C-alpha cells in the first residue's frame, strides 16, 4: 500500500489528509506536501492521519521537521485523528502529545526561551 494525500485550503488554513502507509517509499512526497503547506504560511496546518495504517521513523521525522518549520514561520501545526499503529508508534516514540497538541507560534517561542 502506498501513501496517498489530499490537500484542502479554507479560511487561511491548510488541511492535509493522509492515507495508506507512511514509510520510506513515500518519505520525499510526504516532506514535499508538508513543506509546501508551510511555505504558504497559513494560520494553521492540520495533518489528518485517520487513513494511515502505518508510520515509520522517516515519516515521524518529516512531521516533526514540518511542525518546527511551521511554528518558526508563525503557523500553528497539529496532527489529528491518530489511531491504531500510528497512535501506538507516536506514543512509544514520545511525540504523540507534541504532535497532537495545538501549539501557537507565540507559545513555541516562549517555551524555547
Fold and architecture overview:
- By secondary structure, this protein is of the alpha/beta class.
- The protein has one domain: Transcription Regulator spoIIAA (2-Layer Sandwich).
- The chain is 46% helix and 31% strand.
- The protein has five helices and four strands; from the N terminus they run ββαβαβααα.
- It has a four-stranded mixed β-sheet with strand order 1-2-3-4.
- Strand 2, helix 1 and strand 3 form a beta-alpha-beta unit.
- Helix 1 runs parallel beside helix 2.
- The longest helix is centred in the middle third of the chain and has 16 residues.
- The radius of gyration is 13 Å and the shape is globular.
- The termini are far apart.
- Pfam families: STAS_2.
- GO terms for molecular function: anti-sigma factor antagonist activity.
- This is STAS domain-containing protein.
At a glance:
InterPro entries: MlaB-like_STAS, STAS_dom, STAS_dom_sf. With 113 residues, the chain is α/β, with parallel strands linked by helices. Helices cover 46% and strands 31% of the residues.
CATH superfamily: STAS domain
The proportion of strand residues reads 25-35%
Q: How many strand units? A: 4
Estimated helix fraction:
40-55%
Give the termini separation: 42 Å
**Count of DSSP helices?**
5
**CATH architectural type:** 2-Layer Sandwich
Characteristic terms for this protein:
single chain, 113 residues, alpha/beta, Transcription Regulator spoIIAA, four-stranded mixed β-sheet, 5 helices, 4 strands, 46% helix
